[in-house]
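@channel sequence for tomorrow's demo:
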Amino acid sequence: MERVAEVVANFVLGISENKWVILLLLNAFLLLVGLIMESLAAIVILTPILLPMALAIGVDPVHFGLIMIFNLAIGFITPPVGVNLFVAAGVAKLKIEEVVKGIGVLLITMVVVLLLVTYIPDISLWLVEYMR
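structure tokens (generated this afternoon):
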């Protein structure tokens, strides 16, 4: 009734109409959300709002889904929420601070993969195209 998705899409498209800039803004927003919010809740709340915007700039829904999942997965290993950090600390019987020190290489790798998936859509869409 409030047309939140339409308002968000218009706001973002008002900032820039360049698809690559909007994808960068989307990545930054989802990374911030991943830092403070559990992934399943973020997916349920944000997908109906962000998907129409992604469709408006020509992003395939499968590609958008992977971008969202990769961003939120990075949030799973970064403080303050970092659910996987607490699991790893519990399993390894280490302090959370020790586990955080060891995620640097993994975090950099995940960000590089995120950028590749975001800006090279064929990486995430090759199987979809093959199945058509």
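heads up for whoever presents: The chain has a mean pLDDT of 87.
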